[in-house]
Amino acid sequence: MMLRYAFQTINDRKAGFLGAFAALMCAAALITACGTLLETGLRGRIAPERYAAAPLVVSADQNVHQTTIKHKGDGETKTKHKAKPVAERAWLSDALVGRVAAVDGVRSAVPELTFPAEPLSGRTGAAHGTAHGTSYGHAWESAALTPFTLTDGRAPQATGDVVIDRPLARRAGLRPGDRLTVQSTHAPRAYTVSGIAAAEGGDLRQQTSLFFSAAEARRLAGRPGQVTAIAVVPERGTDTGTLKTALARALHGTTAQVTSGDDRGPVEFLDASGARVKLISMGGAMGGTSLLVAILVVVSTFALSIQQRHRELALLRAVAATPRQIRALLGREALLVGAAAGVAGSVAGLPLGAWLHGRFVALGAVPATLERVTSVFPAVAALAVTVLGAWAAARISGRRITRIRPAEAMAEAAVERTRPAWGRLIAGLLVLAGGVVLVVVLSTLRTEPTSTPVTFLAVVVLATAVSLLGPVLLRAVMVPLAVPLRLAGPGGRLAAAHIRAHATRMAAAVTPLALLIGMTCTVLFIQPTLEDAARTQAREGTLAGWVLTSGGPGVPSEAAARAREVPGVTAVTEVVRTTVRVGLDKYVAQGVTPAGLDRTWDPDVLHGSLKGFGPGTVAVSDLAADQLDLRVGSRLRLTLGDGTPAALTVSAVYGRGLGFGDLTVAHDLLARHMDNPLATTVLVAGDVAGGAGREGGREALASAVAPFPGVRVLDPAGADRLQAERGQANAEVTFLAMGLVLAFTAIAVLNTLAMSVSERIREFAMLRLAGGTRRQVLRMLRTEALTLLLTATVLGTGISLAVLTAFSAGMTGGAGPSVRPVLYAAVVGAAALLALVATALPGRSALRARPVEVVAAR
Hints:
Elements: H1 2-12, H2 14-43, E1 56-60, E2 63-71, E3 77-85, E4 92-93, H3 95-101, E5 106-112, E6 115-116, E7 118-121, E8 126-127, E9 134-139, E10 148-153, E11 161-165, H4 166-172, E12 179-183, E13 189-199, E14 207-212, H5 214-221, E15 226-227, E16 229-234, H6 240-250, E17 256-260, H7 264-268, H8 270-308, H9 310-318, H10 323-362, H11 377-397, H12 399-403, H13 406-414, H14 422-442, H15 448-487, H16 490-501, H17 503-541, E18 546-550, H18 557-564, E19 569-582, E20 585-592, H19 597-600, E21 605-608, E22 617-621, H20 622-628, E23 635-639, E24 645-654, H21 657-660, E25 663-666, H22 667-671, E26 681-686, H23 693-704, E27 711-714, H24 716-758, H25 761-769, H26 774-812, H27 821-846, H28 851-857
Parallel strand pairs: 9-14, 11-13, 20-25, 22-24
Antiparallel strand pairs: 1-16, 1-17, 2-3, 4-15, 5-16, 6-9, 7-8, 7-12, 10-13, 11-14, 12-13, 18-26, 18-27, 19-20, 19-26, 21-24, 22-25, 23-24
Helix pairs in contact: 1-10, 2-8, 2-10, 2-11, 2-24, 8-11, 8-15, 8-17, 8-24, 9-13, 10-11, 14-15, 14-26, 15-16, 15-17, 15-26, 16-26, 17-24, 17-26, 17-27, 24-27, 25-28, 26-27
């Protein structure tokens, strides 16, 4: 009986339930898309390409390990083992090639060298290979791994020969005998294309391959006595699993590990393996934020829907419907709407997840080698969450109508109660207190991975407090606005009267607007706050007059050497950047050349000195010093990018950690353990110009580095602008990640405002019968919308400003968030447009009917 009545109610009140359906469907789609990303990070396949023809691959362990033993009170011990990946590729000793080849069942053991080798176009330094994945160099002897076979020309014999793959030959229009400049780990060099090779089974999709002679490959790899991996080809008839066990036994006691099947993919594509963690983090953060926003929006939507049905529900109570029956009715309605919306949203979320993954790949946040996983689990989870959320939202929103007496329900259906519900008020104050606690905690967090989730959580919690305290806040706002609204004419007076009389219903429209403004401003300005502080520190700490940068893989040491020879140059500092591990914790590290460092770089030394800074010392930021309990003279044990351990003495503690990283070590120490040892930037100090002015100095340096394609000479201001452009590119990932949440919130704004207006047909008819014109009613709606917008703007801006200020205080040490006035105006303008459109369109539709017919029908 109750289920049939629920169906009938939904059928008769399609407009009211359509808003709840839209909110729930968007929530399900968003959760499904985020779940797809999360599942891809957990189970995404990384298929091998170059290693496809090698059933087994021996490689170095790419992780840092930590084992902790906890002693329990009963004498037992608990051992916990953790592992974290290193930033660069770990290499193997080439002595293991012979040991692997000697294992029974091994037909051949092929040593592999993999190193960056970017084919360049002319003197511009434009890369031929970037359109087809990363470009790597190899020794020709490892061409059998894919395998590659020559289709034209011959194998590389001299050190000046190179064999290129077929896709590169097609893109660049190269044939045997042509010359090709390659930027690898040293100065760029022109090679003769001796041959063109094709991969068996089709061209590689994720990388470009260049093959050199064995001697040249070893020189470019820069790892004497080491190999990237060892590919193992078994004897015919040998069981792969048995051989894998035998190899593991033979390599016991070394850092080598043996992989097979799809486990070879992470060995080949280290960036894809690391992207798993990033996708899990992004998917979890987006999904968690989406879920919180969805709960807030859906509860608000159901509350508005039930308020609009207050008279109907009160009448049911008056004709002897019990509270339990009303709760059952609301619950079944919510389950029906939630199930339909969940199915539609889950289906829509699958292509949305595919699009989102594609955009992350296009922006470089996720490598294409990590294949997207599609399964029913995210859709089923989203459906379950949607149905449960709808049911819970309906029960929460209908709690009051089921608890009061029938007579009170009928009275409240006629006139909205003006005094606040004490339960709602107390809950709002408690949630507000929780939001304040989160803001205080945020001001103490000094690392981005810990502060970012708290930042968005604080926004949602404070918006929830606004939702609960909305009627009180709206009535408070109406006090100073009463006079301006009265002076605005009949429309303003009607708007003021309606907002005061229906504060609870109107507050439901303020919540999504405030959330939209607060969340959007936080997303837009959190990254600039961090980047501006980092750029300010870098700008203030750069003493050099010129900066060398590259549009390609980096600036070679040979270019820095040429700059040192320019008359007037007093110091040249090469800078490389990577991440290292201290224990299992990751820290940003930079390597700098020690000679003349005090003339190019000022990190704001707080303790100690950079005099005597060299290979055995390290300078640390004050944040890293606090986290690691370090001081001048302390011994710091860390793991370099390729897994090599190092022990360094702290020589200085500096304050500009945002601009220059957590740790600073000698350039050669860091570069030797990086896949790409080319400098990110090169700082040049001295009176290069002489009497020729700034342009003369630029020309002198540009002439010195002219033989190096892609290397540019910039002044510090130009380098700062370049850094800002790179930061903007990185921010696109954050904007995309949170853009869907903001789009969902924007839809909720339209949905809530449209629902609020569409149910006021009788009110509009009564106003027109009382002498009000159609224009006056529309003016009243616009005035209401602008009043709600003003309230939401103040609340949303306050939420965002409080959160951003706390974030800035924790991350930068100064309570000064970076707000872009133009962007802020655009956010408020977009919110105003949404509010006016969502009010005007349903308002005009509601005014089309004749007032007498509307009143007679109701």
